[in-house]
Specification:
Length: 128
Amino acid sequence: MADYKTTDYVIGIVYLQLGSISKPKYLKTSPPNLASTVKEYIVINSLPINANVMQKCYVNVNYHVKDIEEGKPDLAKIEAGSNAVLTALKKVTTTAYLIDFESQETIREAERGEHYSNLRFSFKNINN
């Protein structure tokens, strides 16, 4: 019988791989009452995973940064955070699964007064 993985498993793996980044990390969503002192944080989530022999899903790592002023992103911090995430996940070397960078975009979240870098990765796991 194959050893199928869940999205919770995948999110947990990515969370562990980002351990070198000292910013707060949240699984699936950020707290609604996030303290105003938190200027940068990460949210890790995923899209559905399939049930094939080669399981695949997409993982979103969102690096959030408070705006410098209303509607004005702190591009230097967003870029540094994005690079930190890319560097951490590029270092993954295992035959158990593959994590590949797919895309990136910066998104405004006006109601929180921040922008975030949405980094999308494909996660592949081969079941035996």
